[in-house]
Amino acid sequence: xxxxxxxxxxxxxxxxxxxxxxxxEWQHYIQKVRMQQRLLNQKRQQxxxxxxxxxxxxxxxxxxLVHEVINDKTQFISGNxxxxxxxxxxxxxxxxxxxxxxxNLNLDDITNIVIVFSYDNYNTxxxxxxxxxxxxxxGNKNFxxxxxxxxxxxxxxKYKMAYEYLKKKGIQSDYIHVMNDSIIICEKIDKICEEIxxxxxxxxxxxxxxxxxxxxxxxxxxxxVKKNIYDDFFRNIKLIDMNNGDKEITxxxxxxxxxxxxxxxxxxxxxxxxxxxxxxxHCLNLFTPNKLFYQYWDAGFRIIKKAQLKTWGNPNCRTxxxxxxxxxxxxxxFEYLID
Length: 339
What we know:
Largest sheet: 9 strands, mixed
Low-confidence stretches: none
Mean pLDDT: 85
Structural class: alpha/beta
Oligomer: single chain
Strand content: 15-25%
Number of helices: 10
Order of helices and strands: HEEHEHEHEEHEEEHHEHEHH
CATH class of the domain at 63-287: Alpha Beta
CATH topology of the domain at 63-287: Spore Coat Polysaccharide Biosynthesis Protein SpsA, Chain A
């Protein structure tokens, strides 16, 4: 047998050369990726530093009070509050979604509902319809509608705007629920609302779902803060302009500062008593396809994310394990709410 093309150890020279080239190419690729990541981290850090130096005060140009419906004057100053951050892409869908979420909550302990909204396309008639439809849901609640004029600070800016209103009016709630419109509450959740009230007796900060992505924190789509910390909490939310600079880097900074680091501050320090209803999966978002979410769902946690609903319609979406029949039917029932 000919040894042509073989090296001393019996390997084929052409194959060895090919493998060597591939190894060199792979090393170059890894170096390139690492360099890109270093540059991205440098940009992120620089942007973080710039954000932290900026003024953290809202201006009159950022928001305006649109409408107040005061049904309960006696409890207006002392009653508990619910902040809702809403961005409207389709007005009809937004009306249905937010009526659904509000009516599936148990709001017996809430007096003031402060809705801060922004929109993609303005239509005077439809926006007055939005205000009228929402404000007539409860005859014993106070409804306040605030227009987030630019939406440049996203949900965290809306939370801050709602708190500015409370301060201006001198409202002294014992606690404040804070929620955005990224979720669909599929059924009545009286049990969850009752559990929140029980845990508020001994805690100043309650999350619905925790996450350990980066650092432990409570997800920002729904949480509750008590009177002894909420001034500090809302005052220290950073105003991060999403229209300034690279959008992906700015969004990363917004999540890092206002959701992860800000939440972790209260969780990690012993002076604050905090609690969470559900622990998310380790280093994963609960609302990705995973076994724990399906377990919670079948146990009665009937809240889904609109973004999650989209993935259920994606034929390439992998689910583990297969969801219950109720969960499968949820998409058919709620898919009309997807923007």
